[in-house]
Design the sequence.
């Protein structure tokens, strides 16, 4: 009878597997970039503590859609676009913002929870309700989806499944 000799190759495979596993884990952990996370509230200038949507604009600002309206953040301070000074009409500026997209000219398209659509001109800081512009083309103009294409055109889908494409004319700045 022969002697029992332990299988060194199996033991070596297990050790190699453990070494590779730990080295891959260490590599993955070192690949995570250092991040600074800030927490902002109404005390810092947000109109509401619940943010429904965000957009990083082409201007470098971060735009927030909240229950109480639109606001921008330049990296140091917030600015709310509300009606506290009575400048806007009754339903403008919009509240209960659900989605914000930016077209190729830098205009913000704002969809609200009640399926209304507004356009915000950042340069003039003015809102425009899109309802009157669309109502002649659709029976039910409640907007259920708004998004942009890679070219910066805006796509709109209404509740009655009408589909609109808004191709902004390039403006001279």
Sequence:
């Amino acid at each position: 009878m022969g002697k029992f000799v332990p299988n060194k190759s199996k033991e070596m495979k297990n050790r190699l597997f453990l070494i590779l596993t730990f080295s891959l884990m260490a590599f993955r952990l070192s690949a995570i970039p250092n991040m600074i996370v800030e927490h902002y509230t109404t005390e810092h200038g947000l109109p509401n503590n619940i943010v429904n949507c965000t957009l990083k604009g082409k201007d470098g600002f971060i735009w927030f859609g909240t229950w109480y309206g639109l606001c921008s953040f330049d990296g140091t301070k917030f600015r709310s676009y509300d009606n506290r000074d009575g400048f806007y009409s009754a339903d403008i500026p919009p509240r209960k913002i659900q989605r914000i997209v930016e077209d190729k000219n830098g205009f913000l398209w704002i969809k609200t929870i009640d399926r209304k659509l507004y356009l915000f001109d950042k340069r003039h800081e003015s809102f425009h309700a899109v309802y009157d512009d669309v109502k002649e083309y659709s029976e039910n103009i409640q907007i259920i989806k708004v998004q942009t294409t890679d070219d910066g055109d805006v796509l709109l889908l209404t509740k009655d499944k009408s589909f609109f494409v808004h191709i902004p004319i390039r403006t001279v700045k």
